[in-house]
Amino acid sequence: MEMKNITLRFGGVVAINDISFDIREGEVRAIIGPNGAGKSSMLNIISGFYTPSEGEVWYKGAKRPPMKPFEVARMGVARTFQNIALFEGMTVLDNVMTGRLTHMHAGVFSQALWFGKARAEEMENREKVERVIDFLEIQNIRKTPVGRLPYGLKKRVELARALAAEPSILLLDEPMAGMNVEEKEDMSRFILDVNDEFGTTICLIEHDMGVVMDLSDRVVVMDYGKKIGDGTPDEVRNNQDVIDAYLGVPH
Ligand SMILES: Nc1ncnc2c1ncn2[C@@H]1O[C@H](COP(=O)(O)OP(=O)(O)OP(=O)(O)O)[C@@H](O)[C@H]1O
């Protein structure tokens, strides 16, 4: 995926200012930056929640026309949210099943009557979901309502739901925010395992620079809507503009 000269304005506010970068197939790509840098806005552009004021998004070698989020999802881009967006009253299993919605084709009529096509599809969806549940080690809470789970596990269920969609690109919005050290380590391991096992391309945004350095192949650094760094964790760590931005040196 390629972002070409993306600018995003909200009235007079320039949230993103002429930013270009790419996400290569199979990599773990991080977008980091201080508060208000424009990271969430960028993720919302990638996932189709926002349309850029200027610039182009290229996906699989073609320019992507303006699309609704569900159309972007159908093209294989799944995401999680900064504030967990799960159905609290539903079980873990049912929540993860909702991740399969983009893959369901059988009509409502045949589904209601449990006809052949719908039944085969349900079985296939169920198998995929069970695989993800095993993979993320949440078998023992499959039947637990999400509302009763601690925060770290909710985040893992959200990851499971996104993964159930079998995305080519998985977008993670601050997957480790609000977690304790142990939960952060677990989440990092799962993210790397997903990348290894399924070959899923991962793009995550994070506020905390430390967390993503071990995890990412390449990092984009944003500050005040601009790109101030782009490269391997080592390159970015030694970039003076990045160091200044994180130390709060005035512009
Ligand atoms: N819907 C909106 N309407 C108006 N301004 C917005 C909107 N969304 C974001 N902004 C502004 O755009 C800028 C970038 O915000 P954004 O949320 O993308 O940053 P961020 O890097 O994700 O920050 P954080 O780390 O705090 O989540 C900020 O100045 C913010 O106030």
TrEMBL record:
Pfam family, one: BCA_ABC_TP_C
InterPro entries xrefs: AAA+_ATPase, ABC_AA/LPS_Transport, ABC_transporter-like_ATP-bd, BCA_ABC_TP_C
CDD domains, A to Z: ABC_Mj1267_LivG_branched (cd03219)
Entry superkingdom: Bacteria
PROSITE patterns (UniProt xref): ABC_TRANSPORTER_2
UniProt-recorded Gene Ontology molecular function terms: ATP binding
Keyword annotations of the record: ATP-binding, Nucleotide-binding, Transport
Ranges annotated as spanning the membrane: none
Cleaved signal peptide residues: none
Domain ABC transporter residue range list: 1-249
Name the record gives this protein: ABC transporter ATP-binding protein
Lineage of producing organism: Bacteria, Pseudomonadati, Pseudomonadota, Alphaproteobacteria, Rhodobacterales
